[in-house]
Amino acid sequence: MTASLPVPNDIDPEEPDRHSSARVVRITDSVPQPSDKPRRPARAPRQGGKSAPRKKRATAAPVDPGPPPPLPSDLEIAASVAASIVVPPRPPLPAPALDAVAGPEPVAVAAPEPVAVAEPEPVAVVEPEPVTVAEPLPAVVPALAPPAAPVAEPVLAPPVAEEPEPDATPGEPASTNESLAVPTLPAATGDALVLRGVTKRFGSTHAVDGIDLTVPAGTFYGLVGPNGAGKTTTLSMIAGLLEPDRGTIQVAGVDAATHPLAAKKLMGVLPDRLRTFDRLTGRQLLYYYGVLRGLPPAVVESRTADLARAFDLQDALGRSVSDYSAGMLKKVMLAGALIHSPRLLVLDEPFEAVDPVSSAIILDILSAYVAHGGTVILSSHGMELVQRVCTRVAVIVAGQVLAEGTVDEVRGELTLEQRFVELAGGLSDVEGLEWLHTFSG
Amino acid sequence: MAAHVLRLRLALLFGALRGDAGHVVRVVLGLIALVVATAAACWALLTMRDASTDAVRTVTVLGGSAVTLGFALAPLIGALDDPLDPRRFALFGLSRGRLAGVLAVAGLISVPILALLAVGVCAAIMWADHGVPIAVGIVSIVLGILTCSLLARVCGALASLFLRERRSRELSGVFVLVVLVVVVPVGVFLASLEWRGAVPSQLLQAVDALALTPFGAAWALPGAVGAGRAVWPVALVAVATIVALSLLWLWGVRRLLTTTERPGTGRERAGLGWFGVAPGTPGGAIAARSLVYWFGDRRYVVNALVIPVAAAITTVPLLIAGVPPEIVALVPVPFAALFLGWLPHDDVAYDSTAIWMHISGGVRGVSDRVGRLVPVLLVGVPLLAVAVPVATSLHGRWAILPALTGVCAVLFLSGLGLSSISSVVAPYAVSRPGESPFQQPQRTSAGGAVAQGLVMVGVLVLSAPVVWCGWLALQGDAEAATTALWGGLAIGLGVLVVGVVIGSIAFERRGARLMEFAEST
After folding, report:
1. For residue B157, what are the CA distances in angstroms to A114, A338, B84?
2. CA distance B234 to B225
3. ipTM more than 0.90?
4. pLDDT band, residue B166 (cuts 50/70/90)
5. Nearest by CB: A292 against B272, B358, B516
6. A349, B71, B157, B232: which could join B152 in a potential S-S bond, CB 3.0 to 4.6 Å?
């Protein structure tokens, strides 16, 4: 539960601009987030970048104090939403309350109004949380509609409030945060991941074309898109496996281009369709993962045992990884990505080929991880799953972000899947396959 | 209590003959082999009655030292559980001193000690024929056997104290390699000495030195008497050795009884294979992973097996062309060194896309580069250490040994250095993991051939001065041999270090491009 308290932005000593802007945004954002993921601060649709934020900030500042009571209507809505949304792991965030307020205004405006909200959250501390949940939802709906707007812009920009405690909490739940209820505001923290104008070409094709993404710390971030949209390329660039042709990537404030080793230290990576050293046994592979990350062998061995238990791999540890099924391979590689308790998890299709029981376990583990301030960015084709577990989502089509925001903002009144199909170009009528309907034998 | 333990010991000895048929057959075959070897040794000793005292002394001291060393190394190398481990008696609450004594005595009842006793008796008989009082022979046997059995106990205790958690098949393998590297060159050197009916003087000096070490002292006693040399120093060393070993054994028993094993570590480490042997650092882990692949993946195995064959085949055309055999004998070893150094020039490509683990793990370039060289070094160094003396002895002139060593060192080490660079800078497609090593992928450019060729040519260019010195040495220039040795080592190590440094920097800078390469093949 504590994890959920993200909001502490009161002060942005270090990066005033950002925070302020962030907060503003956040308010709006926060409103929508119905899901209780730990913190979904960021979100505001605001492409504005820095300058815009500042303004808001000014306005916002005054507002803070009022972490407002949720509107009744909102509550109702929220309730309904909540029902649909399953956020098992973590309790709702305090922030939402604020959001509720924002909710009404929603959309485009969002930026300005939200202001007040964000800040208050910190204040709210633990208790408020419960309330929050309900409220946020309502707000969301309205908000969503606008973003839906075809253009990426609204959605994209949001530098917003990522700051919340996430950073502070990092891999291991900081006890301090909990005690405070309000997280520290990590000035440094802010976003777990920031992409600006990232572009990658293979030959003449633009695999990724000027993507901007901001993933606030402590979010469960979903990347969805049709086949070949550039999701894997984007994640590979984030993980440091590919170099962007243009643009910058910052991991928890560390520039990946200038300090690649430091940035990689912060990340756990699960690639899709890359080999692993499959001649090793499961135990050797996990040991390899851990020791490559510089952990002492004794720590690796005890964590290996813990992970094997959590992922139900105990019986498989002695077998060669090449004998594993696809789902077990995913699990062992995910365990390897977690072994050094990274701040950011970059997961490419983590649920592909994984059985429902294992996926539920994995989701549980990841949710707890996010609740304690960790950040997950994953790509998936499972819209239903993304809608259920992600706090924020970005839709990538042909290397560009077409929509970005909280799940509710992005999907509007549709389901995420419908919205996705719409963004991806819709279902064109299939013609020219009439011969398929005249059976030959 | 002593009777109980001794009976237990006997029961254990005979118990080795029980079990399933395969086990019994193996044990019986082993026993037969041991009996035959013992009988042969006894017979050989008895035939030396009329040999010169020097020759007999050399044989007993060298043989005795080797056997004693064997008793020390066997418990360290073998991964066997000691049935007389003092820890097994910890729960009976026996007094430590008595337990130590009883176990030491029980340790005397073992098959190897019995075989040693038989050989020792034959040696005493033979010495008696050389005029040495029989009493001296008996004292020598007693001292020698006590030394051997105590040494085995003490080393077993040490292994149990310090090696248990790291013990594995892999570690035993490394130990055997180390022994091989030491024993084979020594053996070849001994065999090559010019005996001509008399013991070479160098060997006599070695024997005199060995007689004053704990390993050889007990066995040197009759020889010292027979040759009329000073007996007391030898006897003193022999007795002191036994006293020291007894104290060590007492200490070891106390340690074993008052400390507990760390079962956790022991069990956890099990199943790690090479990873349990290598140091727990990124470099160590990469070395262990490379070793697993080198000894398990057919692609590596085939590459490694081709080398000796290719090296041996180079001799055929030379022999046909009429080159003198003693020159031809020197050719295969440098060839093998060249190929061994060239072997890892495309190592990264063999990982295929699994290289992402190193890149996303933020592994330092040095760890990656050095870790990957460990398997080649582990294979190459012993191979060359054995092959160089053998080739030299085939050649016949030992003066050429330093030159040959230097040439091999420069070819091998500078090959490794250049390979460290090329495997990062110019990887080319190879067959993927799990595919047949003979199934070559399509290559769209000539980059692969260029990289292979450049490494090969680069090594030859860098080695040229040393090879030239080696050629001069072959012509009879003794000084050139020394120059070749030190020059070869210096150039080789220098290129290796520079290559690893450049390779490390390139690895850290080119991570993303390596990934693109891996994904495109």
Report:
1. 73, 40, 10
2. 10
3. no
4. low
5. B358
6. B71
CA distances from B111 to B6, B10, B115, B116, B406 (A): 14, 11, 6, 9, 44
Helices A95-102 and A136-148 meet at what angle, rounded to 10? Answer: 50
Query: What letter represents residue B23's amino acid?
Result: H
Token pair in block for residue B392: 């030299």
Residue B512 with chain A: CB contacts under 8 Å = 240-243
pLDDT at A57 over 80: no
What would the pLDDT profile of B430-475 be if each residue is shown by its tens digit? 888 877 777 777 766 666 778 888 999 999 999 999 999 999 998 8
β-partners of residue A198 are A211
Instruction: Identify the CA nearest to A231 among candidates A183, A260, A195.
Output: A195
Write down the H helix ranges in B435-477. 447-474
Instruction: Quote the CA–CA distance of B405 and B48 in Å, as a whole number.
Output: 37
CA-based nearest distance B290→chain A, Å: 10
Interatomic CA distance for residues B455 and B437, integer angstroms: 21
Strand partners, A393: A222, A405
CB A222 within 8 A of CB A410: no
- Closest-CA distance of chain A to residue B337, Å: 28
Does B433 sit within 8 Å of A275, measured CB to CB?
Answer: yes
Q: B241 is written with which tokens?
A: 């050795």
How many CA atoms within 13 Å lie on the side-chain side of A132?
A: 42
Encoding tokens for residue A392? 């924020």
Does the CB of A296 have a partner CB in chain B at under 8 Å? yes
User: Nearest CB to B356: which of A271, A283, A300?
Assistant: A271
Average pLDDT of B399-420? 93
Q: Which of A288, A322, A329 to mutate to test the interface with B (most CBs of B within 10 A)?
A: A288
Q: How far apart are CA A366 and CA A384, in angstroms?
A: 17
The conformation of residue B462, written as its DSSP 8-state character, comes to H
| Eight-class DSSP state of B442 | P
Q: What is the 3-state secondary structure (H, E, C) of chain A?
A: CHHHCCCCCCCCCCCHHHHHHHHHHHHHHHCCCCCCCCCCCCCCCCCCCCHHHHHHHHHHHHHCCCCCCCCHHHHHHHHHHHHHCCCCCCCCCCHHHHHHHHCCCCCHHHCCCCHHHHCHHHHHCCCCHHHHHHCHHHHHHHHHHHHHCCCCHHHHCCCCCCCCHHHCCCCCCCHHHHHHCCCCCCCCCCEEEEEEEEEEEECCEEEEEEEEEEEECCCEEEEECCCCCCHHHHHHHHCCCCCCCEEEEEECCEECCCCHHHHHHCEEEECCCCCCCCCCEHHHHHHHHHHHCCCCHHHHHHHHHHHHHHCCCHHHCCCEHHHCCHHHHHHHHHHHHHCCCCCEEEEECCCCCCCHHHHHHHHHHHHHHHHCCCEEEEECCCHHHHHHHCCEEEEEECCEEEEEEEHHHHHCCCCHHHHHHHHCCCCCCCCCCHHHHCCCC
Contact A230/A208 with Cβ under 8 angstroms? yes
- 8 Å CB contact between A206 and A399: yes
Distance CA B218, CA B150 (A): 13
Contact between A116 and A101 under an 8 Å Cβ cutoff? The reply is yes
**Cα separations (Å) of A217 from A2, A11, A224?**
15, 17, 19
Distance CA B511, CA B424 (A): 9
| Residue (of A391, A423, A397) closest to A43 by Cα position | A391
Rg of the Cα atoms in chain A: 21
Tens of pLDDT, residues A316-364: 898 999 999 988 999 999 999 999 999 999 999 998 888 888 888 889 9
Instruction: Give the span between the Cα atoms of B21 and B40, in whole angstroms.
Output: 28
